[in-house]
Amino acid sequence: MNQRSAIRIGVIADTHGRFDPVVRRHFKGADYIFHAGDIGKRSVIFCMKAGSSQRTDERF
């Protein structure tokens, strides 16, 4: 039988240029993190990438 592994997806939105480091704890182990809008500053994306061992992709 073919076994599938679960994919963990985190979704965040409306950071408006602010990044709270506690976000990393909430998304620990996520395979993908999607930011749904109102990022405010690109630095938020860079902060979300920090410490991530996963391949990341930015699409604006």
What attributes does this structure have?
single chain, two-stranded parallel sheet, alpha+beta
Map the helices and strands.
Layout: E1 9-12, H1 22-26, E2 32-35, H2 42-49
Parallel strand pairs: 1-2
Report on the architecture of this protein.
- This protein has 60 residues and is of the alpha+beta class.
- It has a domain at 9-49.
- It has helices at 22-26, 42-49, and strands at 9-12, 32-35.
- It has a two-stranded parallel sheet.
- Strand 1, helix 1 and strand 2 (32-35) form a beta-alpha-beta unit.
- The longest helix has 8 residues, at 42-49.
- The radius of gyration is 13 Å and the shape is elongated.
- 5% of the residues are buried.
- The model has no long low-confidence stretch (mean pLDDT 79).
Low-confidence stretches: none
Which range best describes the helical content: under 10%, 10-25%, 25-40%, 40-55%, 55-70% or over 70%? 10-25%
The number of strands is: 2
Structural class: alpha+beta
Which oligomeric form is depicted? Answer: single chain
Lateral arrangement of strands in the main beta sheet: 1-2
Outline: elongated
Rounded mean pLDDT score: 79
Strand content: 5-15%
- Rg from alpha-carbon coordinates: 13 Å
Number of helices: 2
Q: In angstroms, what separates the terminal alpha carbons?
A: 40 Å
How do the helices and strands follow one another from N- to C-terminus? EHEH
- Major beta sheet summary: 2 strands, parallel
